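ESCALATION

Customer reports they have been waiting on this structure for their group meeting. Please prioritize. Original submission:
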Amino acid sequence: MTQNRNETRAPNWLRRVGLTTLGVGAAGAGLAAVSTLLGRDAERKVPPDGGFIEVDGARLHYVDRGSGPAIVLVHGLGGQLRNFTYALSELIESEHRLIIIDRPGSGYSTPKPGTTPDIRAQGRLVARLVDRLGLEKPLIVGHSLGGAVALAAAFAAPGKIGGLLLLAPLTQPMEQAPEAFRRLERDSALSRKLVARTVGVPLGRLGSKTNLRMIFAPDPAPDDFGTRGGGLLALRPGNIEAAMYDIFTARDDLDALKRRYGELTLPVSILFGRGDGLLDPELHGRATAAAIADAAFEVIEGGHMLPITHLEDCARVLRAVLARVGR
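Update from on-call: job pushed to the front of the queue and completed.
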């Protein structure tokens, strides 16, 4: 009997593998639970600010305020519409109708079920939103990766966009993501999902102060950016996965967009901070402006988060490009 029991007992290595698998599974489940709780905490602290509209199956969260010539504002990677309502919108909403959106996958906007739109697809959604709201040749303002989306929207709706204001925009393909976002680089869809739903949220919370310093430098990061600026919403599983996909598709999308910059005939203004630590002003600003017939380029002292740290300069350049549009 003893011999038979020994013969049916699992080998030691197999038992160790089984215990390790159980441990990893339990740890993953625990991290997923923590991520969910932290995501709900972010939603309690940063609730939706506006309404929702369906555009080609996507459910877009947006704020519509002010009156006058329309301006559509599009935030950057890991951002949310509060990046603009933090302060910039207050300077310009008395003169203009502002449509400030969460990009699909960011903030409270969700893409069409079963899809993950890349930068060019997001540009098409912005163009369709212009149609849905009946906006007449609006100015589109894009910050950071939102600048690429704004450019994509102009190509998607020729003749329907009045002009572009690009604030510290991503306009050229890059070999790798900026250091602040490098941990989000993943080529595999499975890897993106696993990271986003396990370690992404807690690690993001732990490293948030360091990351914000890198993103804002050399300007100081405001203490209330997580709530007033909407930064906490980026640290939710779905938002992290969407940001990873933005990074994964950015190189091909930007390569396709830059080949067409010479086709643009609408007024374009590009504003950069000289100390921008994420994107090179010469590559993403001056070189891009040189490729567009009616483009203006300006560099000021400052970093990457211009819509929060350099409001007066943003408003000044916005008014200048509107004058060129004829508004």
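Sent to customer with the following note: Confidence is low (pLDDT under 50) at residues 1-8, 17-24.
Escalation resolved.
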